[in-house]
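Forum: Protein Structure Q&A
Topic: Joint prediction for protein chains with partners

I've read a bunch of threads here and the consensus seems to be that you should model interacting components together rather than docking separate models afterwards. I'd like to see that in practice. Below is the full input, 209 residues plus whatever partners are listed. Could one of the regulars post the assembled result?
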Amino acid sequence: MIKIAVLVSGSGSNLQALIDANLSGAIVGVISNKPEAYALERAQKSGIATAVIEHKQYPNREAFDDVMHQQLLDWGVDLVILAGFMRILSAKFVQAWEGKMINIHPSLLPNYKGMHTHQRVLNTGDVMHGCTVHYVTAELDAGQALAQAVLKVNLHDTADSLANRVHVLEHLIYPQVAEWICNGTIQHTQRGVLYRGKPMLEAIQFCKF
Ligand code: GRF
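Posted by a regular:
Agreed with the consensus. Here's the joint model:
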């Protein structure tokens, strides 16, 4: 059974969706860089081990990442799921977990990498918006996309309403992709990413209009 760790910094609604999905892998631990993250309570309520590793207590990014890396090894983790983890990871850490670490980003990548995606979508006047689950590579929000969920931006949408609407989609596709990795539907191999044993040429699309 695949052992999963979820890295969080905040509310952890995606963590909750992953817990509720009863994945065929086991969530063995949750790491937060913030002691006040509500995600920690969610984990504890479900009997999942937690670790608080405060980035502020380490002299640099690498030192912080080394402690996280060791914790992941101690838990015997096979898959790292970033779920609202608000720290940029060092190249060394990303390399160590390449092909074993996924993230969810609130935009239709490659559009709107980085922060404040909902407001930027509104500023541009885009008609479509959504979220993307992708493998994590050294370049921010640039690893291979595995799944995307799309929604139509409404005239009355604000950054907050878009955030809420995108969240609903996140809770749908993140557990789905996690399960696909747990049950081998998606595999990261030397030949690239495979979906049902064949090269995955594009992200699986989910639409909701
Ligand atoms: C989500 O919007 C996700 O796309 C982004 O961080 C947010 C996490 O929300 N990476 P939550 O903590 O899972 O509620």
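The domain at 105-209 is CATH 3.40.50.170 (Rossmann fold).
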